Amino acid sequence: MAEAADFHGTSPSPARRWLRRTASLLIGAPLVAGLLGGPAVTPAHAAVDKASSDSRTVDVSLNTLTPAAPVKGDTLTVSGTVVNEGKQTIHDAEIDLRVGPQVFGRTGIDRATERDGFNAALDGSSIDDKFGVELPKLVPGVSRDFSLTVPVSELGLGADGVYQLGVTLSGRTSQQSFEQVLGIERTFLPWQPEDLEKKTRITYLWPLISSTHLTSETGSDERQTPVFEDESLAEELKPEGRLGQLVSLGRDLPVTWVIDPDLLSTVDAMTGDYKVKSGDDVVAGKNQEIAKAWLSSVQSAVQGEKVIALPFADPDLASLAHRGKDVSGSLRHLQQATAVAASTVETIIHEKPSTDFAWPVNGAIDSSIVDVATSAGADKVIARSDSLRDDLDYTASAARPIGGGTTAVVADVRLSRAFEGDMLRAGRSTLAVQEFLAQTLAVTLQGTDEQRSLVVAPQRTPSVSQAQSMARALEALEPQRWTEPQDLIAASAAKPDDNANTRVPPASRYPAELRKQELPVQAFQDIRTTQNELDNFTVILTQRDRVETPFGRAIDREMSTSWRGNPEAAQLYRDSVRSNLDVLTRQVKLIEKSQITLSGRSATIPVTVQNQLVQGVDHLVLRLSSDNAARLSLGDGDRIADQPIQVQGGHSQSVKFDALANANGQVRMTAQLLTEDGKPYGEPMQFTVKVSEITPTVMLVLAGGVLLLVLAGIRMYTQRKRSAAAQGQPADTEADGTAPDGDDSSNGGTERPEGDIDGPDPGQASDLTPDTGPESDNPSGTGEKVDR
Q1: What is the reported pLDDT for 129?
Q2: Is residue 40 part of a domain?
Q3: Does residue 455 register a pLDDT over 90?
Q4: Strands 617-626, 640-647: parallel, antiparallel or unpaired by DSSP?
Q5: Strand 281-284 and strand 275-278: pairing?
Q6: How many domains does the chain have?
Q7: Of all residues in the chain, what percent carry a pLDDT higher than 70?
């Protein structure tokens, strides 16, 4: 800018001025003759071609243009940079502002944008030379800043409308001794100094959407401390970050906020204690203040404004329609994501949102997408005009009925895509803003008596530079000379144009490049598997919401639009959710056994259930089955026995089954946990029972031994009696006066009735208590004895 100022105001000599204008006439005359149908002169035609080619030698960039939409009495200031991209030094260069002819209609703007090279007839003549900037020399590879200041009254603007504005650099090189245009940059200047009576209503969607940052993991504490993948969200939330800029810019603009409830929920989780993954460990998060400040700024920005809440985690409606709807349960997730959206948004930012709108990716719709979008309760679908095309010579209003009580709110494709791409370069941003303003004025000036409503649906996650460019365009419209703001709810209720297209295209018309980015069928099958496992797990919990909420929302995130174009990351996330759920479900399990021995005809077989969760489990059934009931049966002679169980958090429970041995040998037993509705829970546990029953032969041998002992005792008693009689002592006492062996009445013992071998008395200290503390899950040792 400083260098440009040095050259500003330097007037070229009259002779040079005459030569440049003559050259422009010579260059432009053949083209004008061609446009009028007259013959062209060959040498001059060659000059035009050369000028068109050489106009690419210098790159001209416009960094600023203020005011963007001038009125009478304003002074237009244009600044930028020129770079000599050729191989020769440019001498006697001059930078000039040129006003071209008025551009009519939106098609005229499109054609002017696509045009390349310099054309004197279409690019117009330069403003008075006193407003130009001279550069004595511009060497290859060198850039120079410039600034042009011109009163609007000097621009020669006529009727209201859009004018082409160009900045050119002209000069000569060693190979071209005459002056010619070596570089040009074009833009548009909307000229509407007075307020129009019929203004176009503009609805601009302002999206607060991000990618997935939360995992499905939570802490075991009362608050269930959340675990984040990383701290990247904090960078977006900072005042200079993407989301920070969207909020600070949008709070002063007439926009409709479109919010993903998942983003609010995630940031809300950051306001308290949270953890962040760091390799295989987790560390404490430390950006609580950033999260609190951002949420506070959102609450302030949206106060009293219209807010649209997308379904939780912004599910990919097209993927659901094309790949997921045939996988059972998929549409249920969309309904759940919609159901929690309103309460999440209202709880966090204290504004009641509308959940009536569905927003497919890029506004691309077909009949199947509309069906899926409305299945969750939405009756308005945000489409785009390149998906629902009109055959009209003007731009129709956004709202139009498409059948079944559904309204398509059709966003304008040119305006919606105006700020896509790299807006970091000031030149790109300036051109985008000027074209956006030109398009809105062209729409307003179209020949129709009806006032129209336009909707602008930009990219879902605009960058900082894109958001800043969008804001500059909306600020330029604030005088409301040809537009006025309108919220999305009002735009959707506006009177539809009877001539507008209401035929929704078939699925075959869906853009192939977008279809390639959709979630695969396998993604929805993975989601179904995870959901089934979650349902099977939560039915046994005493505090189901501690698991249902984090995992239910994690499953919603698996369907997010943000996974488009990133299938590997999407698969990793689905795998991590499933893995985290598996870890939890394995906390309730059977303690492994190897082999136990049963001696006798009847006994009890213990099986231990361990609960390592922090909450209790209930509604579980433990089933024990024998693979050979003829050898070892359970209960009243059955092969299978069931017992309901409850286990407190962090405890184990031992369950005993009555068993009856019928024959010796080994029997394989299977223990399996079941939910109350009969679904298996966890893996079955198998162990072997070795039956070792006492046979009749053994009983005869034992009886014979007992008989011999009795006979021996009788003989010993007889001998002692005889000896005592001989010595004069009583026969029923020993020499020391004590009672004979086997007749100690102080023993107090009782003999168990025959067949009573059901095990120790429940009151004995050796028994397991019904609810024990944490127990080792190491396998039982070989030869474990059962209770008899």
Answers
A1: 84
A2: no
A3: yes
A4: antiparallel
A5: antiparallel
A6: 4
A7: 83
